[in-house]
Every structure is written in C-alpha cells, then in structure tokens.
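A.,

Following up on our hallway conversation. Structure tokens first:
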C-alpha cells in the first residue's frame, strides 16, 4: 500500500509518455480558477447535514494534452466543499472506490475520536464508513483529507483534499464578504513537481524524504497558472496550505496591506492588518483584500514568496463595500491557573527516523492519557540541531497539529504570539529551537493523533496518540 504513490506516478509517467510529443513542457496557458462546488446536503431536515463522498481515481490535465492519473472526492481531483452550521448534526457517508485503503479526517473539527477519520477509522477498498457528529464550534475554514498510516502523503499529493466550512449565527450577522465563489473564495495552495513531459512526480530524491515532497509548480484549487476575476470591492480569501511540505508566505505584489480575519479555528477578535501571511502545511488563514480602490481591469498577483500563485483581475462596476467590523468574534482566553498539566513534545530526528519525544508512531501505543474536560498546556519544541543542517538545505521545518481540539497559543519563546495567532488554532509552526506553548481544553473522548503536518514526516512516524477519557 505504501507504494501506491509510486504506482500512480509510474502510471502517470506511462500515460504522459504515451501522449507526449518529445518537447519541453509548453508554458501552461492561463486557467480560470476552479471553485470547488458546494456539496449538496441530502437532508430535508434543517437540523441535519447529510453528505456523501466517494474516494475515486480520475484523470487530470494540469498541462494541456498531458493527462495524469489523480485522486479526488466525487471527481477527478480534490473534493467538493462541505458546509455545515453550528448546532447541526452532520452525517457523512464515505465510499472508497480505490484499490487501497484510505481514511477521511475532518481537520480542525471538535468531535469524538471515533468520528475523527484518523488512522483508526480505516475505509477498506470497496467499503463505506459513516461519520456522525454535531457541530459545536465557531464558524471556521476547516478541511478534510486522508490519514492512513504510511499512505497519507501520496493520497494527498495525488489529489485528496477538500474544504469543510463551518458557519454560526454570530458570524452570519457580520458585515463581511460571504458570497461563496464570488467575494468569498476558498483557495487551497499546493506545490507540486512535474517532469518536463507534464507528469506529476512524487518522491524522486533523498531530499524529498528528509524535508518532505516539494515542487516548483504551485497549484491553486488544482489549477496551474490560475486567474480569478474579483468584484471591485472587499474580497475574502480562505487560504489553506494544502501542501505536503511547503512552508508558504503569502503576500500581494508591492506588499500591499490586507486584513487577516480568521485563523485555523475561527474568526479573530478583530481584523489584523498585515502585509504577508506565513502558513505552514495544514494551516488556514482568512484574509480580506479591498479591491474597491483599483480601476477595472487592474491585475494584482497573490504570491507565495516571490512566486506568483494567483492572478487577480479587478472587475468592472463597484460594489458597496462597508469597512470591516471592528469586532469580529469573542475569543475568550482559556482560564489559566498554573495548576494545569504541562506536557512537552520535542520534534526531532532525520530522514525516515523522525519522531516526537524520541518515539515513532505506533498504533498500539497511547502516548498520552488526558482527562476529559481538563485544560492542559502543551509545550512544543523542535530540535534537529546541526544534523539537520548537515542534511543539506538548512534546518528541518516542522509544525504541530492535534486532532479533536482547537488551542490558543500562549507564547512563542516566552513572548506573546503575533496578533494573528491569538485566535483559535489547530496547527502551529515550530521553528528550530523555538518553544511554543499552547493551551487547550479536551471536550471529547476518544483516541486522537498529534503530529507534524509535513506529510512525509507524519508518514515516517512523527506522530503520536493521546487518549481522552
Ligand atoms: Cu490535517 Cu492529522 O491532520
Ligand atoms: Cu487533523
Ligand atoms: Cu516535520
């Protein structure tokens, strides 16, 4: 099963070779940005959201005339956007039509361990799995993706990922852009590597194992060289770093200012003005950019570092665009008494030997026992040291994600985190030598994962389990 990525890669290669004239990869034409469709709720009861997802194999031409075998939910690549409201009962049936097992994990969702879609909730080939939970958390941009032991990285790389948007009453009353696909745009950004024949490549070098799989081509919602027409008004971009291992830093040309309005787990207390937004794998950030001051036809690039990610074309006309609300949400700081259990997690190791606290993932081992409804402080640090640098290419980059919870960042190296990290988070970047303290409450019972969200690190064992009971 571990080799599925290789098999896919090989099939893609053969397909690519078959259909390819032996020339260098033609510069890809511009593609209209695909917007993942909203998945239809099958329930007529407004208290219930019922969805059906089929995990399937498909074919995608990232470059014209160069088909690749890819994976998708209900389609060839990526998945539809699921949407539910706080208080709603959610029922999702997942059907796996692949020849290898998968799981579907609801990243960022607060729910019992049995519904989480982690490595324990295996969906075997040709079988179904049902997840049932009630949404009980603030409006947020969450996402879903596979989580099998040893096959997460390849399944995500070849296309399995989708958005899961949550709404709540408070956020629906806010005067912020909310028209899906019009002024409220989901953007999953993923770097990928292509051969000169337009074949999607996976794991071709030692470096890919060390640092995780990275590529020079950015896909946004699965498209190469995408462009998006936006209204001449404020526009909300829900950014998701859906890459395997790329640490991104988003900005607009000329470092134009924008506001971040939400982090992983929901709206921030108030809009935070910034000119760049770092997102590590798995992290989300909602930003609002005001295009009302630009003339019709103005072109602006959203970039990752210096690399253009999305060409934005300002439309005609002008929509009324009220100023952003001064207060977006209430994020009550978790009460901190000093008597909380403190647990320490050290990310370290090299190559296939990456681990947490010197241990590698073992499905039969519960690493941490947590009391239901308790509040704890988790202290995460990354220590690769000189060895990482000797591997070539500088320090190993890691982050930390935990299932079934949203946390608040108390401190980075003893000081307050930046303003945009003072809301709900489920994934944080942890720089080499840095100590990141987070506080959280454990509201749901079950077995959950914590891990580095660099997917090759996760698959190689940089993951552990905690049991809440
Ligand atoms: Cu986004 Cu354990 O995963
Ligand atoms: Cu998760
Ligand atoms: Cu890592």
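Then the amino acids I'd put at each of the 469 positions:
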């Amino acid at each position: 099963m571990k080799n599925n990525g290789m098999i896919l890669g090989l099939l893609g290669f053969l397909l690519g070779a078959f259909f390819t004239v032996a020339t260098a990869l033609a510069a890809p034409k511009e593609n209209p940005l695909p917007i993942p469709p909203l998945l239809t709720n099958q329930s007529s009861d407004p208290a219930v959201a019922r969805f059906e997802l089929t995990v399937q194999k498909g074919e995608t031409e990232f470059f014209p005339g160069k088909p690749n075998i890819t994976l998708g939910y209900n389609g060839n690549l990526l998945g539809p956007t699921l949407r539910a409201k706080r208080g709603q009962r959610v029922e999702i049936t997942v059907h796996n039509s692949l020849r290898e097992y998968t799981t579907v994990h609801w990243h960022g969702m607060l729910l019992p361990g049995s519904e989480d879609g982690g490595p324990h909730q295996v969906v075997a080939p040709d079988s179904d799995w049902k997840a049932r939970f009630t949404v009980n958390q603030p409006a947020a941009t969450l996402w879903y993706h596979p989580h099998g032991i040893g096959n997460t990285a390849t399944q995500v790389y070849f296309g399995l990922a989708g958005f899961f948007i949550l709404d709540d009453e408070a956020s629906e009353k806010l005067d912020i852009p909310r028209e899906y696909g019009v002024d409220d745009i989901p953007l999953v950004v993923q770097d990928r590597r292509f051969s000169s024949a337009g074949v999607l490549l996976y794991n071709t070098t030692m470096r890919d194992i060390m640092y995780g799989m990275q590529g020079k081509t950015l896909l946004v919602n699965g498209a190469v060289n995408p462009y998006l027409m936006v209204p001449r008004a404020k526009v909300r971009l829900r950014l998701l770093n859906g890459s395997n291992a790329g640490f991104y830093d988003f900005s607009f040309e000329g470092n134009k200012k924008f506001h971040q309005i939400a982090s992983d787990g929901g709206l921030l207390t108030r809009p935070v003005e910034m000119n760049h937004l770092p997102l590590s794998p798995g992290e989300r950030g909602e930003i609002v950019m005001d295009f009302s001051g630009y003339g019709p036809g103005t072109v602006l690039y959203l970039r990752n570092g210096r690399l253009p990610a999305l060409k934005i074309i300002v439309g005609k006309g002008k929509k009324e665009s009220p100023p952003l609300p001064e207060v977006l949400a209430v994020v009550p700081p978790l009460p901190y008494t000093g008597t909380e259990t403190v647990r320490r997690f050290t990310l370290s190791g090299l190559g296939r030997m990456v681990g947490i606290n010197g241990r590698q993932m073992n499905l039969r081992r519960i690493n941490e026992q947590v009391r239901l409804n308790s509040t704890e402080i988790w202290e995460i640090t990354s220590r690769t040291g000189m060895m990482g640098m000797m591997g070539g290419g500088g320090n190993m980059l890691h982050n930390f994600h935990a299932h079934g919870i949203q946390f608040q960042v108390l401190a980075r190296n003893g000081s307050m985190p930046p303003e945009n990290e003072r809301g709900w988070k489920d994934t944080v970047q942890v720089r080499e030598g840095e100590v990141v303290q987070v506080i959280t409450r454990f509201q749901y019972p079950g077995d959950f994962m914590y891990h580095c969200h660099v997917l090759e690190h996760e698959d190689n064992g940089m993951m552990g389990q905690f049991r809440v009971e």
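The first helix runs from residue 4 to 19. Curious whether your intuition agrees with the design.

B.
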